[in-house]
Design brief:
Elements: H1 4-11, H2 15-23, H3 30-43, H4 49-53, E1 61-66, H5 73-87, E2 91-96, H6 101-113, E3 118-121, H7 129-136, E4 140-144, E5 154-158, H8 160-173, E6 179-183, H9 189-204, E7 214-216, H10 221-232, E8 240-243, H11 246-258, E9 268-272, E10 286-289, H12 292-308, E11 316-319, E12 322-324
Parallel strand pairs: 1-2, 1-3, 3-4, 4-5, 5-11, 6-7, 6-8, 8-9, 9-10
Antiparallel strand pairs: 10-12
Helix pairs in contact: 1-2, 1-3, 2-3, 5-12, 8-9, 10-11
Length: 327
């Protein structure tokens, strides 16, 4: 790629003159301007946006980390973020951590090297030192969906306790007493709150939560399938299960079919998150829904406000869940 030095050499001017013409930051004679523009065209020179932004400390780019690009929930979150950033002349850079703290740390280092102005992060666990360091260096940070338990920052989350209570109460109303909970890792506040909601709904109806019915996986179909197989082998297996996301729902379905069970007749499943194709899915799956698109828009809004005023106190947006009954 051509550099500013190449352009200056071809045009017979200083690099300051090239910068002044390209950035329109100072007056340059028509003759020199023409020579610089001809050299720019001939060399196909593109100014380095990162270098140009250093004096202003802004690149108008935002880094975003999602846990798993294969999960359709995150597609609408990214769309909500991307649309609002685009409306405000920011560029979104996206990366997937695949729920790996090591991948998260690696991507954060890349975003820091690229001078991203801010970050929107679905937390994947691990050492928070990199995140804290970026905040101290002036980077705007917003957590979405999944937040660390001890890190105070802007965030957009679902009302997870309420969602779990709605789902569990729905299953109890349908006559279930042995209700399992297939959860993600308990290092995340979302899963801690869902566990609390599941337990509260059971205890309100005089049902003691069974620890054997709590399965802690890693958000994947494989972990849910393994946990569900173990529960179905119990002397008193669950007759219903709440799964943490779409992927864990598919794992629970695989395990039930391998055991020769029918859904929802033998095992009823309620999942978190939603998709358009679930309306035609067989068996029909009831879901706890929070708008992923709204989560993205709110996260981008908080980030833009933080970029405009770094002195704002940490803010939290809580999205209310809806139980979408299909079975």
């Amino acid at each position: 790629m051509a550099t500013i030095y190449d352009v200056a050499r071809m045009a017979g001017v200083s690099t300051y003159t090239v910068s002044a013409v390209v950035n329109r930051s100072a007056k340059v004679s028509p003759e020199l301007t023409e020579r610089v523009n001809q050299a720019v065209v001939a060399l196909q020179y593109t100014a380095n946006e990162v270098a140009r932004s250093l004096p202003l400390r802004r690149t108008r780019t935002v880094g975003m980390l999602i846990p798993d690009i294969a999960n359709p929930f995150y597609a609408k979150v990214v769309r909500g973020v991307g649309e609002l950033l685009r409306e405000n002349d920011y560029t979104l850079q996206l990366a997937s951590t695949y729920n790996s703290p090591e991948q998260q740390a690696a991507h954060l280092r890349v975003f820091r090297a690229k001078q991203a102005d801010g970050l929107i992060v679905f937390f994947s666990g691990g050492d928070e030192a990199v995140l804290r360091g970026m905040v101290k260096s002036g980077k705007a940070l917003v957590f979405a969906g999944r937040t660390p338990a001890t890190f105070e920052a802007d965030c957009v989350v679902a009302e997870n306790r309420l969602g779990a209570r709605l789902a569990t109460a729905h299953l109890i109303e349908k006559g279930h007493r042995r209700i399992a909970n297939l959860s993600g890792q308990m290092m995340f506040t979302a899963n801690i709150h869902r566990d609390e909601g599941w337990r509260a709904a059971l205890m309100e109806q005089g049902i003691e939560p069974r620890e054997a019915y709590l399965g802690v996986g890693d958000w994947t179909a494989e972990s849910a399938e393994r946990l569900m197989k173990g529960m179905l082998a119990l002397p008193e297996p669950p007759t219903a299960v709440l799964t943490a996301n779409f992927l864990m729902m598919t794992g629970a379905l695989r395990a039930s079919r391998a055991a020769g069970l029918r859904c929802p007749e033998d095992l009823e499943i309620v999942s978190w998150d939603d998709s358009d194709w679930l309306d035609v899915f067989s068996p029909p799956i009831t879901t706890v829904v929070t708008s992923s698109y709204a989560m993205g828009r709110h996260a981008a809004t908080l980030l833009l406000e933080r970029l405009a005023d770094a002195s704002l106190p940490p803010r939290q947006v809580i999205l209310q869940p809806e139980l979408r009954i299909r079975s």
